[in-house]
Design goal:
Strand content: 15-25%
Structural class: alpha/beta
CATH architecture of the largest domain: 3-Layer(aba) Sandwich
Number of helices: 16
Number of strands: 16
Distance between the termini: 14 Å
CATH topology of the largest domain: Rossmann fold
Number of domains: 2
Shape: globular
CATH superfamily of the largest domain: Glycogen Phosphorylase B
Amino acid sequence: MTAPLRILSITTLFPDAARPNFGLFVEKSLRALAAQPDIDLTVVAPVGLPPFPLALHPRYRALRSLPGAETWQGLAVRRPRFTLIPRYGARFNPAAVARAVLGAVRDRTFDVIDAQFFYPDGPAAMRVAAALGLPFSVKARGADISHFGHASATRAQLLGAAAKAAGLLAVSEAMRRDMAAIGIDPAKVAVHYTGIDTARFHPGDRAAARAALGIDDAPAILSVGALIPRKRQALVIEALPALPGAHYWIAGAGAEESRYRALARQQGVEARVHFMGPVAHADLPMLYRAADIVVMPSASEGLANAWVEALACGTPIVISDAGGAAELVTSPAAGRIVPRTPGAIAEAVQDILAAPPSPTDVAASLDGRFDWNRNGRELADHLRRCAGD
């Protein structure tokens, strides 16, 4: 009988009762990993809280009440606290996370450590691995490289973790190239695509989805994601004057909302821009089906889960040449990759609306690469190699 591989997975991106959509893609991957044969997985999802009295702020109230350990979607999860210094403490977070993790797993023995995000998880895993005498792996997803890999306060720790890791993962081939560009050895990096639950994300009746959501027959374009500058939703608002009759639905929340509302008024399209706020992940399939096109001209991405989810639902995408865009948009049915300008976005949207591809052809463009069982199997095999099995 094969002894199970005992894995400690460290992740600061993981859902909880206060943030059920936070890091949901990490949860899905770890559930797929735990479902593989001979895997014994412990997840440690440290919770950052600022020092007293900032921790009493209402925004942290729900986090303070989270349990220290629980079973979450079938996974054994521990949630130790660490001190988080808002805005200015990025350089200190890895050490604080490592101390929290070590305190939470004193009663367990492991064979390998898995870090699900490059910063602060990677340098934290490096410290935990050194303390426990274990190999470790780190995965790159997007902003962890594009931001933390370039910021002076965090770059050295990130590169140090990459150098000492037994193996590295990237969400796309483009992410692998971005890692190489900042000095990470690409020979250590394996591409590990995300998965998609095709039982939930699949083509369906667009008219019925529109009726359920109260969307009329006007062309509907959609963005899904946080309202932050990097996502560039402003460009889509600025494209609307060239798309008469089209309505823009924005699923997500963030600090840019008031600016985007003002921009919509300025552009004279306020009545055609609909701010939906956060949308539960369970409701996303119907939203994707209701849209004619998903438009996301992000300045940077790894390989956005929303891109994959939209295509799986049969909805073409218009995206910028960011991250793994070219690894997804491999045919006209899948959509268009465009420059980050309002004019280019409007032209691509008009082109697709004039000759919309069939949802079946759009979904078929994913060609089986994005599967959670495959994702879990590849992660298990990678961690076995890191552990020397």
